[in-house]
Design goal:
globular; 402 residues; 17% strand; single chain; Rossmann fold; 7-stranded mixed β-sheet; 5-stranded parallel β-sheet; 16 strands; alpha/beta; 15 helices
């Protein structure tokens, strides 16, 4: 009979809401294999089916060729915080988080959780330390980066706003900084130390415009990103030489869109491009239906890739909608580990891009294969873009019959 020795205890979950990391390292669980017989992947599968998790993990010390079986290995090792006797290096993975908490609000917590969740799925010892910064001005950022460097960190994840990213570029640090919130196209930087992970809204727009009809009716609000996108869409559509563009700014307090939609012959048979947050988008779409507007389709970028869209709009409102999405390649292990920490990497693109960046840095530090096989071109993560439509209960490919 197989005998297993379980060393240590299963670690307690840390408070997922806090972004202050404890200096006490997480205890590891070690599983000693005392079985004298070989166990192939069919044998391991049998252990799983019988619920013999520790017997399975005792043999599954290394990556398995069966993708689903390896996913179960990784998931259980993550949940139990299992250490590996086969580990070739005890060198600790050390990553700093630079958090302008007054600017990014909830993302100070959620990006920390995303980084923590990723590292939990690995057997490598790690240290994740948060550094709060009062503002994103150049002086505060330079001071905090200096402190991070003095503490021996060479890899930093910094979820900054556009202003913060601009100031980091001015500083030109000599430690590696990954900014998951900004695309390099929006920053003037030639630094080899700064990496960018922001979604490429312009490329999403270009792909969506291939589905557009004339006239293109663009709705936007007074936010920086919405206004920037509206201006880009107007220019890009005109550059295609395919027709004219109508732009309508919808102030935050505006709820009645009759002035734009009711008996407006200018927008007949048009495509709508909506650049507003999900609540405002739902209102616009419902009124397009209310005023019986005849149109080809409704287009939107990552802004409206949100499950809330499915619950707050009628199917008739969204039947001709196309949404661009760049959140791809998540594994069930990472999704579930984030879920344990009440974190979302399926729809929240900032949490997703943070995970991608942590994965990139982890690979650089350990030489392990990356989980996300996304190209890095001139220090920018390049994401795939898929066009989806919101069906009855989920987003599906635009050519799907669901």
């Amino acid at each position: 009979m197989k005998k297993l020795l379980l060393i240590a205890i299963v670690p307690l979950l840390l408070d997922a809401k806090s972004y202050l990391m404890s200096s006490i390292p997480l205890p590891k669980t070690y599983i000693l294999n005392t079985d004298p017989y070989e166990c192939d992947e069919d044998c391991m599968q049998a252990y799983l089916e019988k619920g013999m998790i520790f017997s399975f993990l005792a043999h599954a010390q290394n990556k398995l060729s069966d993708e689903k079986l390896d996913e179960m290995r990784t998931m259980n090792m993550s949940l139990l915080n299992v250490g590996s006797f086969m580990q070739t290096s005890n060198e600790k993975v050390r990553i700093a988080l630079l958090l302008p908490y007054k600017k990014i609000g909830k993302y100070a917590s959620s990006t920390t959780n995303a980084a923590f969740a990723y590292l939990l799925t690995k057997t490598q010892p790690f240290e994740l330390k948060s550094y709060k910064v009062e503002s994103e001005n150049e002086e505060d950022l330079k001071k905090t980066l200096s402190k991070i460097k003095d503490d021996g960190f060479t890899f930093v994840v910094a979820p900054l706003t556009q202003n913060g990213a601009d100031n980091i570029a001015m500083i030109n640090p000599d430690i590696y900084v990954y900014i998951p919130t900004v695309n390099k196209k929006d920053v003037k930087s030639n630094s080899s130390y700064i990496y960018y992970g922001g979604i490429d809204y312009k490329e999403q727009t270009n792909k969506l415009l291939q589905e557009a009809a004339s006239p293109l009716v663009v709705f936007y609000d007074d936010s920086v990103i919405s206004t920037k996108l509206a201006n880009y869409q107007e220019i890009a559509f005109k550059t295609q030489g395919t027709g004219r563009t109508l732009k309508y700014s919808v102030p935050a307090k505006t709820t009645n869109l009759s002035m734009y939609l009711d008996k407006n012959y200018k927008i007949a048979n048009s495509s709508f491009f909506i650049n507003t947050p999900i609540i405002k988008t739902g209102m616009i779409m419902s009124q397009i239906t209310l005023y019986d507007v005849v149109y080809k389709n409704i287009l939107s970028t990552q802004i409206n890739y949100d499950p809330l869209l499915l619950s707050m709009t009628q199917m008739n409102d969204r039947k001709n909608m196309i949404v661009a999405n760049s959140i791809t390649g998540n594994t069930n292990v990472l999704i579930d580990t984030n879920s344990i920490l009440s974190n979302d990497i399926i729809y929240d693109w900032i949490n997703y891009t943070t995970t991608v960046g942590i994965d990139y840095f982890f690979s650089r530090m350990t030489n392990e294969d990356r989980e996300y096989n996304l190209p890095v071109v001139e220090n920018q993560i390049i994401y795939q873009i898929e066009l989806l439509r919101p069906s009855l209960s989920r987003f599906v490919p635009i050519d799907s019959h669901l």
